[in-house]
Every structure is written in C-alpha cells, then in structure tokens.
Design brief:
The complex is a heterodimer of chains A (165) and B (180). Chain A is mostly helical and 165 residues long. Helices cover 83% and strands 0% of the residues of chain A. The radius of gyration of chain B is 19 Å and the shape is globular.
Chain lengths: 165, 180
C-alpha cells in the first residue's frame, strides 16, 4: 500500500514538472521526455541484470552464520565483520533487512546490526555497481564509498554510547 | 545540455554479470531447477515492479535539471554553496521518494549541471540513511519502530560528514591534477 503510494507520488512529481515545462513553452517538454526516455532505456538492461542476478547471489549465501559472530560483546571486530558483511550483501531491501533481523534474532548485538544495515545501505557493493556507477560519474561514486567507510563504525559507536536500541 | 555519456557495455556490468551467472549456476546445481525457477520468477516480478519507478526517476532527473536554471543549482548546491549547500542536499535526500533507480539518476543529472561533489554525496548519503520511503516500506515492518527510530536518531550527522570530507578529498585530488 505504502509502496504503491510512493510510486504514485513519483508520477505526480513528474506530472507537475511536465506542466511547469509546458507553461514555459518552447521545446522543453519534448526535450525532457526524449532525454528521460533515453536515460531509462540505457539503465533498464543493467538494472535487469542486477535485480534478477542478485536473487541468485542471495540464494547462494547462508544467512544464519552472521548471528554467531556478531554478538553484543564482539566489539570493534564484530562491528568490522558486520560492516564487511553489509558491504557484501547483495540484493534489495528484502535481503538486507531479513539478514539484519535474522542476525538480531540469532543473538547479534544492536550496534553490530546497526553497523550492518548502515554499511549495507551506504555501500552494498552490488547496488553500487548495478545502480550507482551506471547513473553517476564513477570517480564520484568511489569517492563517496571511501569517505563513507567510517560511518558504520560511528553509527555503532553512537548506538553503544546512547545504550539504545 | 551536458548529459553523462555512457558506453553500451562497461566493465562494472561485465563483472556483476559474471558474479551473478556464477551464483545462478551454484543455485541450480545445489538446489535444483524448481528453486532456480522460483528465484527467477520472484526477481522478475520485482524488476517489473520497479520499472515504472525507474522511468519516473529518469523523468524527474531530466525535467528538474531542465527547469531549474544552472545559476540556481550553482548557488544552492554548487562549489561555493558551503555548509548551507550540504544542509540543503541532506534535506533533499531525506524527502526524495523512490529507490536507487530514482535517486542516482537525479544525483547524476544535478552533477552534470554544476552541483558540487560534496552536495551530491550528502544527497545520496542522506537518501540511503534517512529516506523515509525505504524506512516506511521496508525497515519498519522488519525491525519495528524502536530500532528504526534509534537508528534514525544517530543518522542525520552522517550525510553532512560524508559531504564535508568528500568535498575536502575532491579539492585535494583536483589540486594534485586529478580531473573530476
């Protein structure tokens, strides 16, 4: 339901932009539709490979292992393993969040799971390669990844300091 | 308008294709053809589901850069936008709807018309960590409100951090002659 609303909201934004473009006159609408469609055609085959393929990568990996090495007392080593695991987790939100929850349920500490989901959200290598590098200049993408490396550790530290969740 | 040029085939697509074909072979040999087909149908339906969102993302990226004048982009999130540019980009990333198929084309389009590297990094980082769409649709049902709220309480500083240091590193690299 919410997913449907987000999809609808996106097209409402597109409609508003097209109306503004039409009001400006000239060839703005035509140029926009053509370039937007070209971008879409360029991205589609790569995303198809990424989405369909990531399901197989996720199915090939055993998720249960994570919980054991990421306990609440695993400290910075556990946090580092969690961040690395997040980086290597393929697939969409279903995969990342289900592994996170599975790890939490099988005894992983909350800071470690926060490091895991943060690393996965920031620079899951499969998403970086199949979505981000194809849509943005590669050098800027890798700059973002390198600068983001401390963030999962800072997030875990923050969670440890406030003692939550 | 300076659009990003892409080759029809590139190394990153090649690498990811090889990894995925290998994983698909493992699943087929280990788990059998029924499991192989189930994974395929599941992911094909996800792909069909994201196509309209991806199309919308491409349209939003192109139209917003056509409609917002270059000078405005430069003033708000350009090289001289400073700390305020990072705050604006962080806010924009948090309210940006959609998934990776939406947000990266928008960031790429803004970079092409003169947005600052730091601002683009803050935008993408903010979307990944604070984006309400993903939190509502995915994270909340899986983890529950307690976990999500505390994770969100820690997160807002990070887009600023990444944008600030990204900008510093980019300036350092450019002063040593690395082209952006």
């Amino acid at each position: 339901m919410i997913a449907l609303a987000v999809g609808a909201l996106l097209w409402v934004i597109v409609a508003v932009l097209v109306i503004i473009a039409a009001a400006k006159g000239g060839s703005v609408v035509e140029t926009g539709l053509r370039e937007g469609a070209l971008d879409f055609l360029r991205l589609t085959p790569r995303v198809a490979i990424g989405v369909v393929g990531s399901g197989y990568v996720a199915a090939a990996l055993p998720p249960e292992i994570l919980g054991h090495v990421l306990g609440p007392n695993s400290g910075i080593v556990g946090t580092a393993i969690a961040a690395l695991a997040g980086t290597l987790t393929p697939g969409g939100p279903v995969v990342g969040f289900s592994i996170g929850v599975a790890a939490l349920k099988s005894g992983a500490g909350a800071p470690q799971v926060i490091a895991y989901t943060t690393a996965w959200a920031l620079f899951a290598i499969q998403r970086v390669i199949s979505y981000e590098v194809i849509a943005m200049p590669a050098k800027i993408v890798w700059l973002r990844v390198v600068v983001s490396i401390p963030v999962p550790f800072l997030a875990a530290l923050g969670a440890t300091l406030i003692g939550k969740p | 308008m300076a659009r990003l040029k892409r080759k029809p085939f590139d190394w990153s697509t090649a690498v990811i294709t090889v990894c995925m074909v290998a994983a698909a072979i493992v699943v087929y040999l280990r788990d059998g053809s029924a499991r192989f087909a189930a994974v395929f149908y599941n992911d094909a339906s996800i792909f069909i589901d994201i196509l309209p969102k991806m199309a919308a993302g491409c349209m939003i990226g192109v139209f917003s850069t056509l409609l917002i004048p270059r000078e405005v982009v430069a003033r708000w999130v350009g090289a001289e936008s400073g700390f305020a540019g990072l705050l604006i980009a962080t806010f924009a990333g948090a309210v940006m709807p959609g998934g990776p198929v939406t947000v990266y084309p928008v960031a790429g389009a803004f970079l092409a018309v003169g947005a600052d590297v730091g601002a683009a990094l803050a935008f993408v980082t903010s979307w990944t960590l604070l984006g309400y769409a993903r939190a509502l649709v995915w994270e909340l049902p899986f983890f529950g409100p307690d976990f999500v709220l505390w994770r969100m309480a820690i997160a807002p500083l990070f887009p600023i951090f990444v944008g600030f240091f990204g900008r510093l590193v980019a300036q350092l690299l450019m002063s040593r002659g690395v082209r952006p």
